[in-house]
Amino acid sequence: MATTSSRTQRTDPLTLEVVELIGTVVARYHEEYDAAAGKHALTGAQARVLGLLSLEPLPMRRIAQKLKCEPSNITGIIDRLEARGLVERRPDPADRRVKLAAPTEEGLTVARSLRESLNFAREPLAELSREERLSLRGLLRRMVGEDAGLLADPATPAGYD
Amino acid sequence: MATTSSRTQRTDPLTLEVVELIGTVVARYHEEYDAAAGKHALTGAQARVLGLLSLEPLPMRRIAQKLKCEPSNITGIIDRLEARGLVERRPDPADRRVKLAAPTEEGLTVARSLRESLNFAREPLAELSREERLSLRGLLRRMVGEDAGLLADPATPAGYD
DNA sequence: TATTGTTATACTCTATAACTATA
DNA sequence: TATAGTTATAGAGTATAACAATA
């Protein structure tokens, strides 16, 4: 025991400030995300799904799993994206029960635009030098508990694509 | 120019990974937040408002400003919190147009419980030493652009109380 | 006149349950 | 029978517009 225990001191000012800063980052993240989606007249959920599908077409069921919501909700979201010509439903040759949701050409374009105008932290991160970003990566990795780089699904970086 | 420009290289792997990690943190943040709210059968918005009011009673208008939504939405949220006996509407002696939303005793208790079970990052941060948390704070501060500690509203740390 | 809170309306997201068509 | 997607339904959050009470 070198200095004051950092595990028992649950409300020390330093930890609280870091938590607060993370809250700020989270808020900033959403502001950017919603603003980017809004530019294309998309809701957050729609933008998220479109971003997912731009990586690879997915069965409805898989989308629900990625979004952590009930499959019945996906129907409506895809309906709206389809009505706007950004997504289309394709039959799955292997299983005639499943429908694959895939982005159209325009959908891909919008997804790309979204990703570019989005990419939160690109701006904020620009403030940091390479060394600092390396340091930040290390700290975040430890926070996230990603010791070796084991993500449940390689295609799913996080909740928000 | 020491190494490769870090501002023009917009898609370098390091930056992308950090962005990805931030996305993971954001997702984790919400999981914890929603789980904590769910334990009390509260929605995210309700928990957020209750948390705000636990710091100080606020006019409906102010709540909308803090949540960055239209004032008309607050009516319903406060209605539901009031129906559950967690919040009450008080007249403002100074201006009879405004109604102050204030937590009840039970509301304060729930808010406290929420804050305790919540406090995201307390666990993850426990993994970091004091020095590492100091380092993380510094990096986040720079990301957030909080050079001196100038927040628009001292009572509002972030989007999520 | 301007402002505060509310109501009315409409849309989206969400969960639950029941239905259909496949498997 | 089990599964994929859908439909129907209900609750909640959101924005817009119009309203009553007060300033």
Automatic annotation (TrEMBL), chains A, B:
Domain HTH marR-type intervals: 15-145
UniProt keyword Transcription present: yes
Gene3D superfamilies on file: Winged helix-like DNA-binding domain superfamily/Winged helix DNA-binding domain
InterPro entries: HTH_MarR-typ (IPR000835), MarR/SlyA-like (IPR039422), Tscrpt_reg_MarR-type_CS (IPR023187), WH-like_DNA-bd_sf (IPR036388), WH_DNA-bd_sf (IPR036390)
PROSITE patterns the UniProt entry points to: HTH_MARR_1 (PS01117), HTH_MARR_2 (PS50995)
Pfam family for this entry, one: MarR_2
Keyword Protein biosynthesis set for record: no
Keywords: DNA-binding, Transcription, Transcription regulation
Annotated protein name in UniProt: MarR family transcriptional regulator
Natural source organism: Streptomyces rectiviolaceus
Organism classification: Bacteria, Bacillati, Actinomycetota, Actinomycetes, Kitasatosporales
